[in-house]
Amino acid sequence: MSRVILYDKDGTLLNFQKLWTPYARKSIDSFVERFDMENVREALSRDLGYVDGVIQANSTIAAGTGSQIHQVFESYHEGGGQWAKDFYEENIDLLYQDMALIDGAREVLVKGMNKGYKNVIVTSDSRDSTMRFIEKFQLDEYIYDVICGDDNDFKKPDYRVVKSFIDSHDFELSDYVMIGDNEADTLLGYDEGLFTIGVLSGTCSKEHLKGADMVIESVEDLFDQEGNFILDA
């Protein structure tokens, strides 16, 4: 059976906490210092979704696009959004260095490709960061296509994020499976009937993965010992 596996990136293929927790702390520290706004640190952290040193499930940092994150900074200081965008671009090389794959992520992509599946990354992150991720871990040969947060004006879980891709390929909707670590992924295409699998390798526990048809620990569980996909085993 042909399948198209839609993979979220951060928290699904990429170790989310190792990369984004230090960045969240650093960006908040730098913002309050730059604008002399120590008094907003707690509120800003909460609105971003960084509480007590932990990124919260389904928060702006965990599930939002870059523009949504920048809007939070803008809400605290005029020009804060542009500052946040510039800060991200200034630190993208450091983020690149801190990227780490989820255990088994490469092997899962290889297994899918070897079965004739199309591996597609569907992420809220920027195309620049996503292509750096693919380059760093030499995943290009395993990835059929990439849909990024700055490719269009739609944001997960809006089905229109993937609609043009689906409409342009000769697969049935039942051939598609979305894999992700937050409800922006597990609610993607919910009304249209897209099958979604939640993973617990990111910021969410099972109760946060609204709309998921199935929940597993991580992408390592997508294929069994014989190489059968979880929905075909």
UniProtKB/TrEMBL annotation:
Coiled-coil annotated residue ranges, if any: none
One MF term in the entry's GO annotations: phosphoglycolate phosphatase activity
InterPro entries listed in its UniProt record: HAD-like_hydrolase_sf, HAD-like_sf, HAD-SF_hydro_IA, HAD_2, HAD_sf, PGP-like_dom2
A GO biological-process term: DNA repair
Pfam families: HAD_2
One cellular-component annotation, GO: cytosol
Name of the protein this chain belongs to: Pyrophosphatase PpaX
Name of the gene: ppaX
